[in-house]
Amino acid sequence: MKTYKELHKPASAFKNRSDYLNHELQIMKPRRFRLNLPGRDFRFEWEDLVPALAGTLGIIAMYSSVMMAWANGLSEAWDHITLGKEFAIEVSRVEMLIPAILFVVLASGFLNPRANLAGNHGPMIPLIASIAVAGAHPLALAILIGVLGLLLSVFKGGSRLVNLTSKGVAGGLLIFLGFTGALSQITAVQSWGMGLESSEVALGSMGFLGLIILGVTVVVYSFLARIDKRWLAIPACAITALGIALLGGAGFDLQFTTEMGLPNLNPVHWWGSTEEGWMLGLPNTQHFIASLPFAILAVAMWSPDFLGHRIFQEMNYPKHTDKVLMDVDDTMTMCSLRQMVGTAVGGGNITSSWGTYMIPAAIAKRPIPGGAIFLGLMVLAVAVLGSPMDVAVWPPVRCIALLVGVFLPMIEAGIQMVKKSACAQAAGICVFTAMISNPVLAWALAMFLDNNGLIGDKERAAKLSVVDKLVIPLSILLICISAILTVGMFRGSYGIQAFL
């Protein structure tokens, strides 16, 4: 069997760039947990820079959001804790340095290019305040998530759950997450605009400026989609939004406060004292008990999250590219290890598959390793320079990057998956359940109903075994319900922490 290096052809041998990229995907043979080398196993292409830049912008925004949520939640829940923006940025820089080297450049770049990068668990961000109030400890939560994730990956549970999720259920999940995420970013842009003093804005109204930014974003994104260059959406739209905001007179709101240098990389600084860092000290048994329901919930949400990212590869890659599709179980292994290591050195991120990298990479028809190495270097540079973080977390840049790089593509992918009436039925139930509860329960319930032929494609259900029909879906449903009840995610429920 010929190697990748032997099968490689120069781009000039193909009619167009797309054919060349398709051929590259079809001839790659990534080595699992073995050294993969540029030139021998993969090549760097300029398209790799786009998902790398998109992932860098996305992870800065997401990490900062997580740390600010922790800072606000812990400061409110604990009398002796006062954490602010400076703390959030410094911890974000810790998260960007060590994990970037170990789990982006080394792991996904060289050792296992089929494992998607370990990034951020976006759907968990709104829950962080509840996690803090419940008495959970970030380090205890990280250890539990890592252990549960490793157990699931060892027994191939992640890929099994992905295979049991039909296109209808997956499409409904993508549509719901895409719409809710897009609405949140649109609201955030408008709120940012209205929060500025109109007297300092050249156009006289920040709401008007926010509307202009959103309107131009739609035009730019539509144009890129028309010319089949959607993979340029994050850098193009984010830079456009930055320019419009500055020209509109909102530059006074952009403050450069982060200095160049390295954050404190000594774990003792963050976890070894109650007078500095997190001000929590090391976790005790009570912290682990309070963190367990949230850890179960986070790991339960991994499968639909991973599924959504792999779907983008399947939709944009040509045929005969199974060897370069992201491996769900390997990705789960890397996310679990990265969760424990990143938090142990002082971080606080809740990890999942890196969507702001994978989605643009899939659209650009690029495999994981090349862009992963570029991304790791970019993240390291940003973490050291400091000031680019201030630009990336500025609302018009952060919100537009997330809007066009994650949420709009999710909506498009979900709609494309829901083509048959049976798929539409399953998708509708999934969306409806998510609206009245949350996406995790929606996925679990819709998967159970769909696999038993109560909704969706009955012919598909008839081919499944009893284990795939009842045992696994029902177990997942019961676990999700138990975890959700415990942490109080049902509307109107208080959760077990209210009675402690």
The coarse overall form would be globular
- The level of helicity is 55-70%
Question: What is the count of structural domains?
Answer: 1
Oligomerization state: single chain
SS class? mainly alpha
Q: State which percent range the strand residues make up.
A: under 5%
Radius of gyration: 22 Å
Q: Give unreliable regions as ranges.
A: 491-500
What is the count of helical runs? 22
For the termini, the CA-CA separation is: 63 Å
Topology, number of strands: 0
In short:
InterPro entries: DUF3360. Keywords: Membrane, Transmembrane, Transmembrane helix. The protein has helices spanning 4-7, 17-27, 49-77, 85-111, 128-133, 138-154, 157-163, 167-194, 206-226, 233-247, 267-271, 285-300, 302-316, 328-344, 355-363, 368-385, 387-392, 395-417, 421-436, 439-451, 458-462, 466-487.
